[in-house]
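Message: Just now I want nothing more than another pair of eyes on a protein record. I am handing you a single protein, as its sequence and its fold in token form. As I understand it, each token names a local backbone shape. Take your time, and here it is.
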Amino acid sequence: MMFRSVPQFTSTIYVVRSKSGQSFTELATGLLVVIPIVLLCIDVATICMGVTLNDSVCRDAARAASLGAPNGITPGEPQRRAEGVVNKANKTTGAIRLDPAVTVTENIVSLPLTNFGGPVKGEVTVFTTVHVFPPFLLSTFVGAMDKGIDFKTSQTFSYTWAKASTATMEAPPAGNGTGKTF
């Protein structure tokens, strides 16, 4: 068995400090600051992704709504086209959820003539909403645990659709209407 010699202290008390104890204290204090900052960054990134997704889907839905006939020619078609794009991209679970309800409004200046066709002059606007549920700190502070944070956007596109002509031409009478043939 090995015995250690105990230092003899006279009037001064020597304190031997462990470096590891100070390091653990600094680590714990640093983590109290760093962890909330990291969680806040994740929340902000989730919000940015939700807003970007909403803008992109709304733009695509407005473009799809503008590619076909307006409500004045085929009622309900712009709404159906916009909803189709949103439903295709729809995500109903997770931290970012698209609202399937889409609002489509039109501003039609003129429609093409019935028989002669032509372009539609006007524009279509699509409104979409996304519900973002930040996973960590922001949902607690904002109170968005159950309903999320709503972000709405709208996009407007001009109609690019043109109606085809259905008019037919009659052959002119022979002899320019005089009854004579040349």
The CA atoms of residues 57 and 169 lie 45 Å apart. The mean pLDDT is 85. The beta strands are 96-98, 103-110, 118-119, 121-132, 149-158, 162-163.
